[in-house]
Design brief:
- This is Activating signal cointegrator 1 complex subunit 1.
- Keywords: RNA-binding.
- InterPro entries: AKAP7-like_phosphoesterase, ASCC1, Cyclic_Pdiesterase, KH-I_ASCC1, KH_dom, KH_dom_type_1, KH_dom_type_1_sf.
- The structure is a single chain.
- The chain has two domains: about 110 residues, K Homology domain, type 1 (Ribosomal Protein S8, Chain: A, domain 1, 2-Layer Sandwich), CATH 3.30.1370; about 200 residues, Cyclic Phosphodiesterase, Chain: A (Alpha-Beta Complex).
- By secondary structure, it is an alpha+beta fold.
- Strand 1 and strand 2 form a beta hairpin.
- The chain contains seven helices and 16 strands.
- The chain starts with 6 loop residues before the first strand and ends with a strand.
- The protein is elongated, with a radius of gyration of 24 Å.
- Helix content is about 30%, strand content about 25%.
- The strands form five sheets. A four-stranded antiparallel sheet has the order 3-4-6-5. Strands 8-7-15-16 form a four-stranded antiparallel sheet, covered by helices on one side. Strands 11-10-9-14 form a four-stranded antiparallel sheet.
Length: about 350
Amino acid sequence: MEVLKPQLIWIGNRCYRKNPLKDNQGYNPEDEELDDGAPYTDLTYCDEACDADLEIEETDKGFRTVMSVPNAYYKYVIGKKGETKKRLESETRTQILVPKPGEKREEIVILGHDKKGIVSAKTRLDVIIDSARQRQQFTHFLSIPVTCEQVVTGFEDFRFEVLRQCDGDRGLDASLFQNPKKLHLTIGTMVLLNDNEIERAAVHLQSCQEELIQPLLQGERLEVQIRGLEYMNDDPGSVDVLYARVQEGCACDRLQSLVDRLVDRLTSAGIMQRDHERVKLHVTVMNTLMRKDPSGTSVPQADSNGHARPRERESFDASQILKKFPDFDFGPLHIDSLHLSQRYSTGDNGYYAQVTAVELPR
């Protein structure tokens, strides 16, 4: 299916097919070749000039453009022993200036004698950077906080009853439960590696309030019911993630439409990468990633190459939980805001540290 129906990547107004990544722990993306082994040719004019909005400045020696690129991506642009950068410069007849280590500016400058060469180099750099971005762990996420008093109380009742009635079930542990102050509905994740990218994401999200959210909700409150349980895999006896559902109905449909359109908007802007055709509305209540080592002395093991390897997840048996609490009612949720938050952070109120938030009708 990766060949018949490949994942598509949007960079600005351009669409690319994502080829499956090499499944090799020793694979180094900096070693990746840009072509299929064909001999070097003049490919400058084979690229479609599809970046009509690109700002290209005319200079005494030709043309130049500047790309804002976080320094985390420089190694992918340069490549092993500088081969990637050299090849790009040769094939597009440009000069690509990458800041040296220690320089504070995060900009790559492309110089050339021809506008088409500039556009071609910029297009190829966009693809390299976007491919590298997808290999990064996400740094920020767009979410709906599920921290109202009624749902938190319902969650705490659920946790108490599960630990009381299902004590002894394989893998069940109190540390698997989500922090009640951080319960949330995840809309989408993002890789934002510098202040410019964070600010750009925040600006785009704020623009959605007037252009998308207000016309869709028309001033009406959005309230859904959090009820019932589901799990992520197909074996209830071996579960890693257990989550609460948003109860189906008109309110759920409105919420689904809202978040899907938000993802469309942010994906088109190149801020968010779409993982699925529709956002899966769920509130994680138990996750084995949160399992604590009882001894408190767990040390990551190393693989054959000496790289740190995360401890393997230990699933839990959720059969009895699903049997005893299939339609557990966590309570009503009035959705009054959307948050762009930083991963692995905690704000003053106990929720994730907020970059920006968009208010919804109250």
